[in-house]
Known about the structure:
Blueprint: H1 3-18, H2 21-40, H3 43-62, H4 66-70, H5 75-101, H6 111-131, H7 143-150, H8 154-170
Amino acid sequence: MNSLTQLAQFQSIAVYLSNPAWDVVALLAFGVLGFIYGVMSGRGRLVAVLFGLYIAKLLFDNAWFLGRFTDALPPLQQFFASVGILAVLTFVFSYIFAKCFSGRVLVGERWWQIFLLAFLEVGLAASIIFSVLPSLELYTFSPLVKTLFASPNVLFWWLLLPAAALFFILG
């Protein structure tokens, strides 16, 4: 694919992502996914997926050999390949942790604790996805989306908040 086609892809994606309506969509998706995820998953699965996300992000960031495969791809395919690799790693480690945590009470009995952890996990997953965009400077995000998910330093807070919540819920 030539560079003009890649530039056109970036521009078409940037138009959709920079539209202020995406703020509303991002917040609604965040809320709906958090609610559905909290209702559908059990307490043990919440913790298993949380640990799976942490391990997947850690391995993805430190797997030096992945660049050999993804760097040759066009930017959009590179993004989807990165998200796919993260999803597979998360699934594998979530499955392993689910086996380890089965039958144990890991999150409090209160419904708000389950929803809080579910919302924080969805936020962490969204922030991780934004962190693997091939070139954040090519996309123009609205200030709200950038503040919540796409700024360079916000991933730290999304990594910290679910762990802190889990500490206080279990403590």
